[in-house]
Amino acid sequence: MGRATSSQRYCHRFNQAVEPSSYCPISHPTKSSDFFSSHVRSLYIRGGHPPIMWRSINGVLKACQKVQKLGLIFLWVDDSLRDDDAWREMRPQMLSLPMMLFKPTHRHFHSKFSAEQPSIFANITHLELIVDNTGPESWSWSSLADLKTLTHLCFSTLSIVDPECLEVAREHIATATPFFPHSLVVCVLAIQYARLDWRLQKVLKDGRWNIDDRVVVALTESYYDRRRGNEGEWIQKEMVRRQEPYRELGSGCPWESMISFWDRAERKIAERRQAQSGE
C-alpha cells in the first residue's frame, strides 16, 4: 500500500467524526459547533440510501457549508435534499450533483436562485451534472453564460439499462452549446454505463450536438478497453477513458481521479486541434 495523501487522511478522519452521528443535526462531543463548517473542504457521498438516511445527509450538508468540493451522486433523491437551508452558504468550486436535485424554480445559473437564496454556482469552476429524464426545455440554458468562472462542464449518464439517458444528455449539450461561457475549456459527455449493443459509434457520430470543438465524449474503462475493430479504433481516437463510478471511490476520496479525468479531456481537445492545424 502506498502512503496516504493528506486529502485521503482528512476524508478518513471526517468519516470517523460523522459516523457516530447518524441523524441530523451533525455534531461531535469534542468539537465546537462550527468545526465541520470551518474545517471540511471536500465532501463526496455516493450510492443509494434508505429513506431514513436522507435526513442525515441533509444534516451533513448543513454542517459543511464551506466545502470547496462537493459530490452527491444518486439515481434518485428525497425531497428533504431540496431544502434551501442545506445549500444556503455553499459556494463550491468543484461540484457533482444530480439534475433532479434542483427544484423547477432553481434550474438556472443566475447569481441567485431567488431573492433570498444565492446560487450554489456562484464560484464554480468544475461542474458535473448527473442527467435524468428531464429534458433541456426545463432548464434555462441561456443563463449558463453567467458562469464567468466555469472552465469544466460534464453531463454524466448513470442509466444502466436504458440509452434514453444518453439521448437526453446529448439534447442538453446541443441546447447549452450556444451559451458556453468564454471561460469554458472543455465540456464532456460522460457515459458512465453502456451496453455493447447500443452501437455508440452510430449514435455519437450524429453531429447535431457536438459542433463545438470543446465537446469530448468519455467512456468507462471497461467499455473503452473491450471495443475492438473499427469501432475500437474510432473510440480510442475520439474519446477519453474514465474510471467506473465505483472505482473512483477506491481511494476514499475521488477528487484526484476526477482531476485526472479532466486532464485527459483537455489533452484530447489539444490533440484534435493539433491534428486539424496540420491538415
TrEMBL record:
This is Uncharacterized protein.
